[in-house]
Amino acid sequence: MAERFANRKDIRFLLEEVFDVNSLTQYDYFKDHSADTFNMVIDTVMKMGSEMMYPVFQEMDKNPPRYEDLQAKVHPAVRVFLDECGQGGWLNADWDYTDGGQQLPNMIKFLCWFVFSASNYALGAYAQLTAGAANLIREFASPEIKEKYLEKLYTGKWQGTMALTEPDIGSSLGDLMTSAQATDQGYYLIKGKKMFISGADTDAVENTVNMMLARIQGAPAGAKGISLFVVPKYRVNEEGKLEYNDVNCDGIEHKLGYRGCPICQLTMGENNDCHGYLVGKPGRGLGYMFQMMNEERINVGIGAVAKATAAYYAALEYCSQRKQGRRLSEKDQSLPMVPLIEHPDIKRMLLMQKSIAEGGLSLALQVSKYLDLIKVLPEEEREKYSLLVELLVPVVKTYPAEAGILATSAAIQCLGGYGYCQDFPVEQYFRDIRIDPIHEGTTGIQGQDILGRKISLGNGKAMQYFVAEMLDTIEGAYKFANLQGMADQLLQSINELRVVTTHLLDLSAQGKVEEFLADGVLYLELFSLITIAWQWLLQAITSSTRLQEGSSALLENDRLFYEGKIYTCRYFFSYELNKIYGLAKRLTSNEPVTVEMEAKFLQV
Amino acid sequence: MAERFANRKDIRFLLEEVFDVNSLTQYDYFKDHSADTFNMVIDTVMKMGSEMMYPVFQEMDKNPPRYEDLQAKVHPAVRVFLDECGQGGWLNADWDYTDGGQQLPNMIKFLCWFVFSASNYALGAYAQLTAGAANLIREFASPEIKEKYLEKLYTGKWQGTMALTEPDIGSSLGDLMTSAQATDQGYYLIKGKKMFISGADTDAVENTVNMMLARIQGAPAGAKGISLFVVPKYRVNEEGKLEYNDVNCDGIEHKLGYRGCPICQLTMGENNDCHGYLVGKPGRGLGYMFQMMNEERINVGIGAVAKATAAYYAALEYCSQRKQGRRLSEKDQSLPMVPLIEHPDIKRMLLMQKSIAEGGLSLALQVSKYLDLIKVLPEEEREKYSLLVELLVPVVKTYPAEAGILATSAAIQCLGGYGYCQDFPVEQYFRDIRIDPIHEGTTGIQGQDILGRKISLGNGKAMQYFVAEMLDTIEGAYKFANLQGMADQLLQSINELRVVTTHLLDLSAQGKVEEFLADGVLYLELFSLITIAWQWLLQAITSSTRLQEGSSALLENDRLFYEGKIYTCRYFFSYELNKIYGLAKRLTSNEPVTVEMEAKFLQV
């Protein structure tokens, strides 16, 4: 049976059997690696997860950070964890050797985040934020900035943050107000307020490095006027000493979940002495952020997958042990009770959770593999994978975030009254996952992104590549008698997607911008269901192949595992994929009620 | 604009215009009432809600009951509220004059619960539990028991509870273990443990009266062996004095939401001195409970509706004020930002919440009206309404509970990062509502109830009456040009329901019990969407009628209100009702994956 928060067997299955991570070692960039090193990495992080992170998972929630002495006092595990991350090289494992990295594939790196998030999402976040900040500096900052800040970040000594949101500015980043005034000393004077900044200013580290968006005075309005700055809490002066940088944490928020990591309000420049160091060119701040955004959004998706996975294993364990009632077909009520898992409705809820968690993980690894191929393939072969990544990132981010709310809710339902109580972990997953449709671009933003931008990328080439990938899979599925029905269904679904997409693009062509984009979220849902169905068919093909080859040599556990995958695929196609028909009806309905209706009709 | 938690205008609309509560006063039973008394009642509870209950809504969540001195120490508001309930006669307002009641219609009574729950669900629960316990005693207990316990309950002096669940027994009540041993003193000796008992043993009251299910020693196994007892914490002795009754509260649970009201573990008979007083006949305990169950389940549904309603108004207020970005069709990013509510995706989320909340309330009032008619109509006309109540109770209970999770989640999404924070109330509604698919019969139980029992009730007569009611509404809708499309759609939906129902009943006829019942939850969802669509068409007819009649005399606010109703109806038909097509595909798919798959395929 699995660890309490993730299944090593499933990780191996996806990594080695479905996506053949070992094939990457044929390329120069990855040639020092092997199946052994990959396995060692996964085993090590699984050990960190079970020995260090999972044991404080509930404790960190019940004792969230306190705001004291102008700082967030956090759980002592944060310091220990960041140290281990630094020593293990987890924060920059995918970087080039020349940057101090280990040139690990994205597939492995993202799986590490998956394990961290599954065992303790809030704790993992400290590392993820730091890695994100370090990445931005490595990619875009000057040698001087790198020299001063980079190593401290990737060794886990200092905390990194992403400081974008302001008290009145969330999704509409182009409107932000934090200002940067040029000086003749090479730095800018930063003034303003930031909000919801995860991990900013904790007592676990001696310094915090905020990657901050601000508007240089005199810059144009809107997105073009936004620049990126390094704004540390303590700046490194010419002698290499730390100097207070006029960045203050004004307080932290009390929130629904994700409680182990504080979200902070920051004020910069109250004493007019907050130095910010420009990263890259002025006016390019949002551009730089967005170059890193794909990775951040995949991280969010993986975090949601991880929470749904851990909730699923908690529910599976409970339902396997707890007895209640008798089978529906059993009339004799004097017989002993059966485990919950014998009831079809419970099996439905478990299969639902499994299909969302493992389907979401599969897609995240699929996209990670594209990222790896982009690194190693010759220039002319990269376009395809780049377009696929762009197209699929909104799905990787949003599907597990939104479906994960339902999955963790089903985990609660599996436990009944106990699920509602804090003695069991499932209610925490339900709270923790609720942040994922909000941060790093809300679901609404993702819907506009895929419909308004991504499906038209490369003049529709992105969509063509996507459909071609799915057709490949469908062809593979036709080789197995038990998968043909599902292959047919996926084919029909692709056709539905075509009809819907054409209908919507027609609206766009007619200049009906609002009608076109109004239901981006629903379009993204339809698109996601088809994408995840594809991933399940892929897993079912691998499983069917093993079952066919294996016959006598196959271990019983493996047989059960592969059969379980095929059952889950069947579940997904019958229960989840069929939802596209309702969505398609709505999306082709020509009923622009949300565009036509004005606010006043509700405000009465 | 509305109160912060409910809209008086909508209450009046449903009560007077859609369901014509005043027509009830033509019957003898209700003849002392009038539009004025009904309005006075609603105004009074709205005042209690806004002045006493809502102000402590968040406070009671943040300072939940503590377990001290073998009791739950609760918020002082509980005592004040129960007193007001007692003085106002709210706990037994619907009872006959002869029982001390006011003969108020169910419609009014349930609306009182709605207002209490919308302003402060946890606080309202104390009263609801007490009313439920009092109802059981009034209906089934002996004059001696009534004499000792009834008045103390309905005056709010003592707390009532429903003590069903045990540590290992939840949905499978027939298996419960608490025992009752007959004595020759007229009482039974109770021994056992109960779990998740809301409101049992708090310091707000001097005594708690538990309505407890237990098995008399020697009684048959299963449901037939269960009897109902009054098991007070302090029993009333022959001299009318209170005597400790060997009932102990061992602790309270820490839970996801609904935190203002404790759920307690009880141990009875540790000193072999716990007296229980048999209510009614031995072996009839579950039967009595189930006679009250309809009311309890309507209460749960109304509680969920109330939480979704309050969350909706919080979201509406925020989205009306907070500015962010520009309209999708606006290219000029230097223009001022617009309120969130200008964005179609936000309008979609608000309409979704409104359609669930007001659709759910409409159905609850519809069923309440049936209950009122059962009270006053001659015997031969009652069957229809009794069957309709039986059929629709699973929908009244489950639809707002399940859809309400999505509605409150959408409320969080409307507020973005702020929605995730405890400064705003929406995250609490999301937590509070999550109990509703669990208590008073889980969604799984409701699904089995409607599919396995209710649709076949009276040899299918229940379904015939239901369809006839909807056809009436459809006929009414055809009179309005703007409603004809929706009338058509509802007609088609009824046909889908027929096809699905026939398919499933065929499985039952073939003896495939598990295949038949496996997807009860999905069937209930499909059934619910059609039911709520019917309720929206009903509201749209009333609104269209007013708009047609009104023309010049209509106040602008009324016009906006009625138009808003029609927009919401359009929303529901296009976004929600269309979901039945995916559900129907699944339900008629002959893919029994959740029946076929055995546990072992997941446990690997």
What does this structure look like?
Two copies of one chain form a homodimer. Helix content of chain A is 55%, strand content 11%. Chain A has 604 residues and is of the alpha+beta class. Chain A has three domains: 146 residues, Butyryl-Coa Dehydrogenase, subunit A, domain 1, CATH 1.10.540.10; 128 residues, Butyryl-CoA Dehydrogenase, subunit A, domain 2, CATH 2.40.110.20; 152 residues, no CATH class. In chain A, the strands form three sheets. Chain A has a five-stranded mixed β-barrel. Chain A is globular and about 80 Å long. The interface between A and B is large, with 110 and 110 residues.
Q: Largest interface here, residues on each chain?
A: A-B, 110 and 110 residues
Low-confidence stretches of chain A: none
Can you give the mean pLDDT of chain A?
96
Count all strands of chain A and give the number.
Answer: 12
Principal-axes shape call of chain A: globular
- How are the strands of the biggest sheet of chain A laid out side by side? 4-5-12-7-6
Biggest sheet details of chain A: 5 strands, mixed, barrel
Q: Class by helix and strand content of chain A?
A: alpha+beta
